[in-house]
């Protein structure tokens, strides 16, 4: 499901079962990440699939990338793997105006 930043943020704030997933590259993540996000690079092919398959399918995943295209693809992949609740951030990190942290 594609959500605008406002809807994505509001839903995330009210979701006690939420996980934020950043599917950008490591270089892109050096520009900052959304608070509490963890990273799995979608460009890593089978590694991405393997990592996704280890995740708890009962959680609600809020997924983003740089512009919203790769995260939409990630949501599709996750849905095919049995995840029921994946939410894509329309516009991605480029249009994000919320809190940002920088990985160490």
Please tell me about this protein's structure:
There is one protein chain. This protein is α/β, with parallel strands linked by helices and 104 residues long. Helix content is 32%, strand content 21%. The chain contains four helices and seven strands, in the order βαβαββαβαββ. It has helices spanning 5-13, 26-29, 46-53, 69-80; strands spanning 2-3, 18-22, 33-34, 38-39, 60-64, 86-89, 100-101. Strand 5, helix 4 and strand 6 (86-89) form a beta-alpha-beta unit. The chain is globular, with a radius of gyration of 12 Å. The N and C termini lie far apart (31 Å). The model has no long low-confidence stretch (mean pLDDT 96).
Question: Largest sheet, order of strands side by side?
Answer: 1-6-5-2-4
* Poorly predicted runs: none
Largest sheet: 5 strands, parallel
Strand tally: 7
Please give the alpha-carbon distance between the first and last residues.
31 Å
Question: Total helix count?
Answer: 4
- Give helix and strand order, one letter per element, not per position: EHEHEEHEHEE
The proportion of residues in beta strands is 15-25%
Rg value: 12 Å
Q: Roughly what is the average pLDDT, rounded to an integer?
A: 96
The structure class reads alpha/beta
């Amino acid at each position: 499901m594609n959500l605008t930043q406002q809807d994505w943020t509001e839903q995330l704030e009210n979701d006690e079962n939420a996980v934020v997933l950043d599917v950008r590259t490591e270089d892109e993540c050096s520009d900052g990440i959304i608070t509490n996000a963890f990273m799995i690079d979608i460009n890593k092919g089978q590694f991405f699939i393997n990592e996704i398959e280890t995740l708890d399918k009962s959680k609600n995943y809020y997924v983003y990338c740089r512009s919203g295209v790769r995260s939409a693809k990630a949501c599709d992949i996750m849905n095919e793997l049995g995840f029921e609740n994946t939410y894509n951030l329309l516009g991605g990190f480029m249009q994000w105006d919320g809190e940002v942290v920088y990985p160490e």
